[in-house]
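Milestone M4 deliverable, item 7.
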Amino acid sequence: MDQKVNTRHQCLLTALKANHILGCIKRNVASMSREVILPLYSALVRPPMEYCFQLWSPQHKRDTDLLEQVQRRATKMIRGLEHLSYEERLRGLGLFSLKKRGLQGDLTVASQYVKEAYRKDGDNFFSEACCDRTRSNGFKLREGRFRLDVRKKVLTVRVVKHWSRLPREVADAPSLETFKVSLDGTLSNLV
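Output delivered:
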């Protein structure tokens, strides 16, 4: 990050690294079938793009598009899906866009803090909204007000509105595994 908490440089380096790995896969793998490319993408390309994503999450559309372009390229490599649109390719492969994957990671981390998995570290990360009227889940988080846009991009702020919109059965999941499965179902229904 630079002095203005801009993550442009990180996004460029991440996209460059992921594109290099994707290029190696394209040059060295003979079969471009789904059964070959999808596991290679999931094991080799996606981890560098998502490493510490909650910390350096892209702030601008151009950065998000830069990272999303890598996934577009990877899904287009798969034989039989070249003619489909990007959204149709994602649906056919059972993948989320990187924006949804980032939201999924954000909500998972927030769930761990809310459920007190990191109690020592996160005592004051989230504050509960003092409101008896809740329509979706029973644990609403309070959204702060900030004068600077830089603060709005921090995990503890950007996740609040999404957490408060979660259905009760997702937010009240008894374990992290149950939360992840319920969250996947909820996110797959979103357009």
